[in-house]
Design brief:
This protein has about 190 residues and is mainly alpha-helical. About 70% of the residues lie in helices and about 5% in strands. It has six helices and two strands. Strands 1-2 form a two-stranded antiparallel sheet. It is elongated and about 50 Å long. It starts with a helix and ends in a 9-residue tail after the last helix. The mean pLDDT is about 95. The structure holds S-adenosyl-L-homocysteine (SAH). S-adenosyl-L-homocysteine binds next to helix 3, strand 2, helix 4 and helix 5.
Length: about 190
């Protein structure tokens, strides 16, 4: 694997994610929102995450900026990053499909929202966030630059830490004991660990 090959894999990850998301984003525009927590804070978190996982690494690939933060390219790391990128894309596909019309880009409960607790959601409450963490890992492994490589962890990490408790609180308000029981028997993002 060469550095430009690794850049191409990262681009494929971003394009693949976008293609997976298009039909869900379209449908979500047509699905009525029953309760929204998409406030200014949520919007800011989305922008920070988009910057870290998208704008910063894509600008690095396009311009090489900031080159002072470059380090030696490691083909084995890049192959490992290719595997985690493939895993992330599979998880994105499966989780979007499982959530269906319940999916929102932000904190929203839809009209007729159902709680998904089977399939990939049986043991994990936030497998789509697992997929974004895998994206951040791929970014760090594929891009040999401290700034662009770590930006995904900082950007998505900020969204994750700023959102997770509020999302679960929103789900408890909507689904009550059903969600509390689900939270007891499942993990957030890593089976058996967290
Ligand atoms: N946190 C989940 C979903 C991310 S999409 C994951 O990482 O897989 C965010 C939206 O999904 C939230 O606004 C909420 O309305 C919805 N949601 C989260 N968990 C859900 C579940 N188990 N069933 C149905 N909808 C869910």
């Amino acid at each position: 694997m060469t550095p430009s090959g690794a850049n191409a894999i990262f681009l494929l990850l971003a394009v693949g994610w976008y293609i997976i998301r298009i039909p869900h984003a379209r449908r979500s525009r047509r699905t009525r929102v029953a309760r929204s927590r998409k406030d200014i804070r949520e919007k800011a978190l989305l922008i920070v995450s988009l910057a870290g996982l998208g704008i910063v690494p894509l600008a690095y690939i396009a311009t090489g900026f900031p080159s002072f933060a470059d380090y030696a390219f490691n083909p084995i790391a890049a192959w490992a990053g290719t595997c985690t990128a493939a895993g992330a894309l599979v998880l994105f596909f499966v989780t979007h499909r499982a959530l269906g019309r319940n999916w929102s880009i932000s904190l929203e409960v839809r009209e007729g929202h159902t709680l998904v607790t089977d399939g990939i959601y049986r043991h994990l409450r936030h497998p789509m966030y697992t997929a974004f963490w895998l994206w951040a890992v791929s970014q760090a492994l594929l891009l040999p630059n401290w700034f662009a490589g770590c930006a995904g962890f900082v950007g998505f990490g900020t969204l994750f830490l700023g959102r997770i408790a509020r999302e679960e609180q929103m789900m408890v308000e909507r689904f009550g004991d059903e969600y509390r029981a689900y939270a007891v028997r499942s993990y957030r993002i890593l089976p058996g660990i967290y």
